[in-house]
Amino acid sequence: MKRQYDTGLDANSISMQVKVGTVGEAYTAAYLLRSGGQWNKITESTADSGSIKKTNIGFAADLRKSYVVVRTLIDLSNLNEAERESAANTIFIEYKFSGGFAGTQTYNFDLDDITKTPDNRFVSISKPIELI
């Protein structure tokens, strides 16, 4: 489910941060999606933390009417079957946006953002945030 962040109309600098909590290895990448289907990678995590430090994504006036899509891939294959199921159900991700008219807003992922393989070895979470 998409969320919305109000950037405002001025020249404020908009920032984002992602915190991932999992026992597996995680990788996260954030993309800016503009009308016409143009995708640009904003930033990415290290190969195993999944978290993204506070990153400037642009100015409010330039970002309005676009989306930030944050994709996280988690590898739980180092766990046994029972541990994988528990780990897949206890993943924590926090998406924090700041600098806009809405101030600092924190979002979590929703159930319709997550896809798991049948054996819970791999988990994919995609979170769209509309910048309004």
Write up what this structure looks like.
The chain is mainly beta and 132 residues long. It has one domain. 10% of the residues lie in helices and 57% in strands. The chain has two helices and ten strands; from the N terminus they run βββββαβαββββ. The chain has helices at 60-63, 81-89; strands at 3-5, 13-21, 25-34, 38-44, 52-59, 66-75, 92-100, 103-108, 114-116, 122-131. The strands form two sheets. Strands 1, 3, 4, 6, 9 and 10 form a six-stranded mixed sheet that branches. Strands 5-2-7-8 form a four-stranded antiparallel sheet. A hairpin with a 2-residue loop joins β7 and β8. The two termini are 16 Å apart.
Relevant terms:
mainly beta, elongated, 6-stranded mixed beta sheet, 4-stranded antiparallel beta sheet, 132 residues
